[in-house]
Amino acid sequence: MTTTVKGTTAQQDTNVIPFVPTGSFYFSHGIQAFQKRRFSAAVKWLKKAIEASPDEPLYPCQLSVVYTEVGSYHAANQVLTEVLAEHGKEYVDCYYLMANNYAHLGLLSDAKKYVDTYLEQPGDGEFEEAAKQLKEMLDSLEEEDEDDDWAFEDEDELLIYQETAFYHLEHEEWEYALSVLSEMMQLFPEFNIAKHKYAYALFMNGDQKEAIQFEQENLEKDSSNIHCHVNLATFYLKMGMANEATFHIERLLNVFPMHEQQKLAVAETLARAGYYKEAVERFRSLQDKQVVRRRVYYKWYSVSVYHTGNPSKALQLWEKGCKQFPKMSEEGGPWDVE
């Protein structure tokens, strides 16, 4: 006859051995989740593995790989930086992984620095072949002229067309803008930004369906096209389709373009979407004088600064914008813009 005593501290002999999960236990579950592309679960398990075995560099490195897979390149590099700070050259693969992440972000000089560091290490690293291919790609990009969007930047005729188009766009003269951009597309077919500005003017002029279709078709050809994501995010936000816009905004959050016009476009879009803190960081990085004199710069930088707790600077930016673009004053102020 077995008696169960409640409310006492008496302990009975037992053959049951308590199970204490180890870092390797959590890590194996993280790998399984990763292989099944259950990335949220993989992150959870790998973080548990790191907590259980904080001195094991393999676990955070694998966590960085998961972050890279989902496009969180900055988060990945933050983890890898911590591994390098703790373990130094004992875990040289971090240099390649960081180079790969910087390449994805478009920060090519940083990517080149880290891939060179990786290849300078003695011995054959696990990623040596991939690193050599990455270095070849970075070297070839360095040798090439700037991309097609900017290949004609020094040509006077193109600059005249470009400034004329921007003037009409910033003054919301959509039909004039469409006319100028149409000519640009014929005269400079490789100047791709004109096509996306044309789509934007088309949308603002009322041809929403055609503009969206144009950008969707372009995105199918190049899923990383910044201008497509900028325009589609803007179109959907203006149509009140927040869920559709989110897909494109998430892509832009992980993109850091090299060209000033693209930087401005991303900053403006993030501000439109309410990512004010992120937008302020992007606006602060702008240096080109032509870019920082655009209407959208004054307007959306002002809005972003206002919503991040600096109303005096927001008002200063807004007033500068109104001086150059009087129509801005009709919009009230940065607190009124939705």
From TrEMBL:
This is Tetratricopeptide repeat protein. It comes from the Bacteria. The lineage of its organism: Bacteria, Bacillati, Bacillota, Bacilli, Bacillales. Gene3D superfamilies: Tetratricopeptide repeat domain (1.25.40.10). Keywords: Repeat, TPR repeat. TPR repeats lie at residues 23-56. Coiled coil: none annotated.
